[in-house]
Amino acid sequence: MSDQATPGTAVVTGASAGLGKIYADRLARRGHDLLLVARRAELLEEVAADLRASYGVKVQTLAADLAAPDDLERVAQAVAADPSITLLVNNAGLSTLAPVAQTTAAQLQSMLDVNINALAHLSRAALTAFKSRDRGTLVNIGSVLGFHTLPISSIYSGTKAFVVAFTRGLQDEVAGTGVKVQLVLPAATATDIWELSGVPVSALAEGTVMAAEDCVDAALAGLDLGEAITLPSVNEAKLLSAFTDAGAALFGASQTGQPATRYLATA
Ligand SMILES: NC(=O)c1ccc[n+]([C@@H]2O[C@H](COP(=O)([O-])OP(=O)(O)OC[C@H]3O[C@@H](n4cnc5c(N)ncnc54)[C@H](OP(=O)(O)O)[C@@H]3O)[C@@H](O)[C@H]2O)c1
Q1: For the chain, which domains are there?
Q2: 9 burial via Cβ count (<10 Å: 0-12, 13-18, 19+)
Q3: How does pLDDT run across 242-257, given as a tens digit for each residue?
Q4: How many angstroms separate the alpha carbon of residue 124 from the centre of ligand 1?
Q5: Helices in the chain by DSSP H: which ranges?
Q6: Residue 37 in contact with residue 49, Cβ under 8 Å?
Q7: How far apart are CA 246 and CA 228, in angstroms?
Q8: Is the pLDDT reported for residue 219 higher than 70?
Q9: Which whole number is the average pLDDT over 210-227?
Q10: Which element (helix H / strand E) includes 265?
């Protein structure tokens, strides 16, 4: 059990590598006990052993393939069942960067399964528990490719656009409660995801790739600042409000109940 004075247990998905491994380190440093999730059990155990030794926190591991329904259900139940859990970082994700016609059905499905399905189900499990206790923080990792699509990122961008829309809705749902929801939108960051995606990090333009440690530290600084949406690499914060304002204005302009006049001219 946790009380308000202790940071409680943080669940990090995709904690065997990349951003998730750094999140695990930073959250342990902040005094969180941890539940680490990923498929590679041995790597998870290595991460856990290091963190126990470095920070003296309790670290559990749960080897699970979040694309597999039974495994996802096990993780969701673990999140729902442990009242000490105060933080979930939905970080696990993957990408294949290629035109859709050059993407296998299995690659497409695994992006939908992990980036969308697992994130949505684990968000639901965590928020149900957090709302019942009026305490808890959900962090969903999206991407700047959630609001911009490249010819090789149609599927990945589509999955991350889901994360953007879904998480912004969740933020409205918890407004005025003790529950927080942060949407983190990294740009290119040096992790294994690039090699796995088919585009090596060395192919990216010089000066555009952030270190994984910097990305997580900025994301946590954004969380500490109370940001709803954190863009670790974007200096011009007003671009975000211009983007969200434009979306709201476009939605508002659609509420006419009539075809726009340009479609009437040719009728
Ligand atoms: N790096 C970037 O440039 C960048 C930019 C924007 C957003 N992001 C997002 O940041 C998040 C972390 O990515 P990363 O760059 O750290 O990638 P990464 O280094 O490839 O790590 C991905 C993590 O997700 C786990 N994972 C993948 N498939 C899984 C599955 N089926 N079940 C359970 N765990 C799974 C992996 O663990 P196992 O292989 O052990 O399962 C690994 O721990 C992702 O959501 C990604 O989309 C990354």
Answers
A1: 9-264 (3.40.50.720)
A2: buried
A3: 999 999 999 999 999 9
A4: 20
A5: 18-29, 41-55, 69-81, 105-111, 119-133, 154-173, 193-197, 212-224, 238-253, 261-264
A6: no
A7: 18
A8: yes
A9: 98
A10: none
- The DSSP 8-state label assigned to residue 242 in this structure reads H
The residue whose C-alpha atom lies closest to atom 7 belonging to ligand 1 is 143
Judge whether residue 3 has pLDDT over 60: no
Give me the mean pLDDT over the 12-23 stretch: 99
For residue 202, list its beta bridge partners.
none
Angle of helix 154-173 relative to helix 119-133, nearest 10 degrees?
10
Ligand 1 in contact with 22 (CB < 6 A)?
A: no
How far is the CA of 101 from the CAs of 105, 113, 154, in angstroms? 10, 19, 11
Ligand 1 site, residue 209, Cβ cutoff 6 A: no
Nearest to 125 by CA among 13, 266, 30: 13
State in Å: Cα 192 to ligand 1 middle: 8
Label residue 2 by pLDDT band (50, 70, 90). very low
pLDDT of 266 reads: 67
Identity of the amino acid at 90: N
Nearest-angstrom CA–CA distance, 262 and 228: 37
d(CA 230, CA 210): 15
pTM: 0.97
Residue type, 142: G
**Is residue 114 lining ligand 1, measured as CB closer than 6 Å?**
yes
